[in-house]
Amino acid sequence: MSYEHHHEQAERRCTGPLAPSRRAFLGGGLGGLLSLAIPQWQARAALAAAAGDPQAKPKSCILLWMNGGPSQLDTFDPKPGSANGGPFKSIKTSASGVRICEHLPQVAEQAKHLAIVRSMTSKEGNHDRGQYLMHTGYAPSGTLKHPSLGAWVSRELGDPQFDLPNFVSIRGPSVGASFLGVEHNPFTVQNPSQGVRNLAYPKDVDRTRFAARLEALKMLQQDFRTATRTAAATNHDEVYQKAARMMHSPLVKAFETADEPEAVQKAYGDSDFGRGCLMARRLIEAGVRFVEVTLDGWDTHIDNFTKTKLLMNDLDPALATLLRELTERDRLDDTLVVWMGEFGRTPKIGAADGRDHFPTAWTTVLAGGGVRGGQAYGATDDDGLKVARDPVTVPDYFATLATALGMDPTKEAMSPVGRPIAISENGAPVAGLLR
Fold first, then answer.
1. 195 or 397, higher pLDDT
2. Using CB atoms within 10 A as the burial measure, which of 84, 268, 355, 406 is most buried?
3. Is residue 33 within 8 Å of 209, Cβ to Cβ?
4. Cα–Cα distance for residue pair 169/388, rounded to 1 Å
């Protein structure tokens, strides 16, 4: 089962048959009114962010999801001279004593901001289970569906009245909110080059007629809610209203990367992943709290080195430019950037120049948002076969992410089965990763 199909099914199970997707709600659209939108949406967002104590501002998170499980040895934990090291060389970085793959030269310049976690360890070596684990912090178990980190951020840090979704997923559906509520599900943008599609009114519908239709729908929904008294009916109405509010908001311009100067667009790289990272920066500046951008293709059982090099050609300019721009715009301290996949790849190189699934000892990368940068935390042994120092479990990792974002990792919500579920399952924040 594919990643997309798996999580589309999970989404349907979580939201129920009466909670259609935002895509369906946006089918009519509102392109005509966008010509009237305030062009200075970024200035509006900056003024809002500046209000009050800057230390009290909610933080945001950008998750760069490396779908398939990236090879740690060929990216951020090179093993030069080892039989498992592969053909890539390692290079110096702006972080003292830290070396990474030669095909990440721009990222190497930004390494002073990075906390490279080289001692991740888990037990989930299956794609679907690993994807679920690294999005929710929990291994799949029974029928209970856990909320994703993005959903928790939306619930704890997001503004319910914000015009845009508090959780946006670019180039992938991500994992949903489960029992936290449909309003915390990810809003998906499949192609960042196209932005949000279908925003125009249908033919022969103007703003007055559209408002009349919404009012009629509200009346019908009220009767239905009264008759059924179900949460799904209320969720259905809330998402309709949220979609309509987004359609009329000048902040929807945040999805339009073509508005950026050509030099900025070029710096992120000529790839959908690069454009996704640029969109993520724009969305965070507009006030979105959690943005996930997917780079697919890391399941390199065959021809690992050719495929990984091509992926790094997209990753390097996008990640480096994202960090540089967040720094220049004074947003990095308020934005946690996370680079990770579902697990790592085997140190031993296969017969077809491939690497297989390896959850025993692998790597993630953090930057910004309360993280202590300029370091490689933990270590694997000389051959990359096991964690040699400072192991980081998934519960501890999620507790660290929550703490960096200003959330309480022990915060609980009641699941449908009457069991309280916390952001992190008995995890403890890793002090060495936090400022």
1. 397
2. 355
3. no
4. 35
